[in-house]
Each structure stands twice: as structure tokens, then as C-alpha cells.
Amino acid sequence: MYKKIGIIGGLSPESTVSYYLHIIHSCYETNQNYNYPEIIIYSVNLQNYHNWREENRWDLIASDLVCAANNLQKAGAEFGVIATNTMHMVFDEVQSKTSLPLINLIEVTASAIEKLGASTVGLLGTNFTMASDFYKLGLATHKINTIVPNETDQDTVHNIIVNELVVGIISASSRKIYAEIIQKLMNAGAQAVILGCTEIPLLIQQKDANIPVIDTAKIHAEAALQYAKSG
What we know:
The protein is of the alpha/beta class. The chain contains 10 helices and 7 strands. It has 2 domains: 5-105 and 219-229, Rossmann fold, CATH 3.40.50.1860; 106-215, Rossmann fold (3-Layer(aba) Sandwich). The strands form 2 sheets. It has a 4-stranded parallel β-sheet, with helices on both faces. A 3-stranded parallel β-sheet has the order 2-1-3, sandwiched between helices.
């Protein structure tokens, strides 16, 4: 018997699909049958979040995420995940204002890094994720050091995410650019790299890098499945 999973999705739709499919495929591989957990998806208005983020209105983002979590709970979800990295900037505030248990992606990522035995990791994501401290501080509590690309490379990583990946555009040239940036992070001392935007795994896989890549969408979805099984 599974707990009912709630997914706050739409941030972006592409990554929401990857969460859903990972849970379903993982269940089938394990059970070899169609005994899947019930999954409730609440897809938010992505344009609102883009606008609020540009206006630095994280209070509105947090408020809307609380509303989404509460709606999932009303629909029957017993716990939830926020299917995006960037919005975990307000995770603690959201969790404090909803009674729906939420799985913290930063903590899941820290556990994955600890299993690798890495002490220094590179971080790729949106400009907001790479420039802000919420990831770095969260990992620092686990004695993990985080390094990010230079400003020019950060802009490149961000632009590929928002102009290509969130709308499902996957290009070989962008993959090559990302691989080169990952190599720079490795040269700077990174022992692994966090794909800290849930769209990046659509472009980059382990074969594209010379250090371990941490697919945050995959490990977050897997954490949701394992928590659901604990019911």
C-alpha cells in the first residue's frame, strides 16, 4: 500500500513529466506489474512564477506554493514534492505554512553527494539557483563545498534552460557547451556536478561528463517513491 504522492508541477511541464515517468517506470522495474502509487499533480502557472521571480517577489511565490500544497492535500495527497530546484529557495517558508509533508530536494541532493563521498561539487542551474546561497548553505551543513561557473558561463547555462529546455528543445550544440562547462568545474576541483535544474537532465546524462552527475529530478522522484512505499 502506497501513500498518495502529490507533485507541485508546471515549473516546468517538461520536468514534471520526468518525475511522473520515473516513479512509474521505477515501480514497474521493481514489481513487474502495474501496481503504481496514486499520484496527484497540481500544475501551476509558469508565467506567474517567471514574473514574480523577475520582480523578486518571493513572497508571492511562497504563497502560491503553499496554496498548491494545500490543494494537493485537499485532493488526497499524503505528502508532496516541489518539482523544481529554484523554488526550494522558499522551501522552509512553504513547509512552515502547510501541514502537507514536503520532501526537501536540497537534503535529498546532500544525501546523494555523501553516498558518492564527494566533498566539493559543481552546481548548474538557473541564474537564481547558481547566484543565491540557498543551495550552498544547505549543502554546507553537510560539510559539502559548492562551486559554480563564472558569470559568463552562468548566463549561458541559464539561457539554454529558459530558451530551450523548458520548451522541450534539445540540441547537440547546447549539450557540447554544457559538457565544456562541466569540465571547467572539474578542473576547478569539483568531484561531482549537481544538475540543479530539473530540466538539465533532459540534455545532460552521465555519459556527457567525466565526473558523476547528480540528476536532481531523478533522485527527488525516487525519494518520493521510497517515501510512498513507507506507508
